[in-house]
């Protein structure tokens, strides 16, 4: 009897120990990976960046300075205390910056990098495990002047070449935009501010002409209530038919998705598959037409074809993107007769591999388009390679469409989910999905750690043949860190 009581006592202690471990693990599962979880802080940190076709600056817009800006402020005793001035936002090539190397001061691309770091230092918030800086609003111009020689081909410098499929109205078509500030103010218990402007340099902040490009992001929040609401608007024009506008949570330091230099952002920890989820509320008012590749979520990172982390060498680094497009007018280019637009295989949630030539089982309509990096040496045929000019280095893109197979991860399962008139709060198992997507790797190499440095939402209106307008609001944005169950729990359970 005494031995039985002793065994019962030991077992009860084990169960209590296991329960405490499970409780600890569950409490860890709601840790946020961003500095402003759910956009709930009254003290806002938000920045702006604009790019030309290949994620560089090229040339500043007249009187605008380098296309980087920020509005960062604290709310204290009913007053907004701004951290960034108009003079800071107007800084451009030729102007001094703290720590700026002499060779950067007149280089438009390198100066923008240093200006972002400087603005980040003004906005930085101390936190654990590391400081963070701001949400990033990204605007990009899809015009490409092939005669300019500005964009490399898969990272290699190439001479000018004849125009082809890329839009460009002529010399200067890759210009940066006019940027106007609505400085955030507090009135009636509501804080409100924003950025807006146009790519048409003959117009100003109130570009309302129907033939003029336009962008706007307005943020507002009631003091001590709920989330910041970010209201986005993007309009294309005949001169600028390919524009992109996203709100991004980027790495606090290191390379954000699509960049080959140190950036600043909201992610205070690295996101590694499969251990994170993303939560957001999205309300799309206008879709932007049939060519609007609206990304419920776009995640970006960088690793080499041999699985090694990127190190800034644009000849061997590869940007990796995965994008869920929710515009119901976007077709599946991947099909049994278009295998080159499909990844070589699909992996199910229970880790079964389905090859693209298995026409009875491969989910073709779940993929809009897959393209492989142009510097890969062992590609499986047939294959589409990604546009070699639109990033500073080679890139690989996996574009998804709503489909029942994504339902287990919380993603849209049918066309129209989350589209105009169907506002939703999403909780997406981004880490779980991204751990099972196909990405190219050289045969025989150690699998890359899938660490994601950018998570964003917004649209890419892709070479529209008429003027289009997209409008949407975004709030409650959060990145939730999840963790596998403590290995010690598993060991105790096995015993």
Pick out the low-confidence regions.
1-28, 484-495
Q: What order do the strands of the largest sheet run in, or round the barrel if closed?
A: 4-3-2-5-10-21-13-14-18-17
Biggest pleated sheet? 10 strands, mixed
Give the overall form.
Answer: globular
Overall pLDDT score: 91
Q: H/E series, N to C?
A: HEEEEHHEEEEEEEEEEEEEEEHEEEH
Q: Percent range for helical residues?
A: 10-25%
What topology does this entry show?
Layout: H1 2-28, E1 31-32, E2 45-51, E3 68-76, E4 79-82, H2 86-90, H3 108-123, E5 135-141, E6 178-187, E7 190-198, E8 214-222, E9 229-235, E10 243-250, E11 271-272, E12 276-287, E13 292-302, E14 318-325, E15 345-347, E16 353-355, E17 367-371, E18 394-400, E19 424-428, H4 430-434, E20 451-452, E21 454-461, E22 469-481, H5 487-494
Parallel strand pairs: 2-5, 14-18
Antiparallel strand pairs: 1-22, 2-3, 3-4, 5-10, 6-7, 7-8, 8-9, 9-22, 10-21, 11-20, 12-19, 12-22, 13-14, 13-21, 15-16, 17-18
Helix pairs in contact: 1-5
InterPro entries: DUF7705
Domain DUF7705: 31-481
Overall description:
The structure is a single chain. With 495 residues, the protein is of the alpha+beta class. The protein has helices at residues 2-28, 86-90, 108-123, 430-434, 487-494; strands spanning 31-32, 45-51, 68-76, 79-82, 135-141, 178-187, 190-198, 214-222, 229-235, 243-250, 271-272, 276-287, 292-302, 318-325, 345-347, 353-355, 367-371, 394-400, 424-428, 451-452, 454-461, 469-481. The chain has two domains: 2-29; 33-481, no CATH class. The protein has a ten-stranded mixed β-sheet with strand order 4-3-2-5-10-21-13-14-18-17. Strands 1, 6, 7, 8, 9, 12, 19 and 22 form an eight-stranded antiparallel β-sheet that branches. Strands 11-20 form a two-stranded antiparallel sheet. Helix 1 packs antiparallel against helix 5. The longest helix is centred in the N-terminal third of the chain and has 27 residues, at 2-28. The chain is globular, with a radius of gyration of 24 Å. The chain starts with a helix and ends with a helix. The model is unreliable at 1-28 and 484-495 (pLDDT under 50).
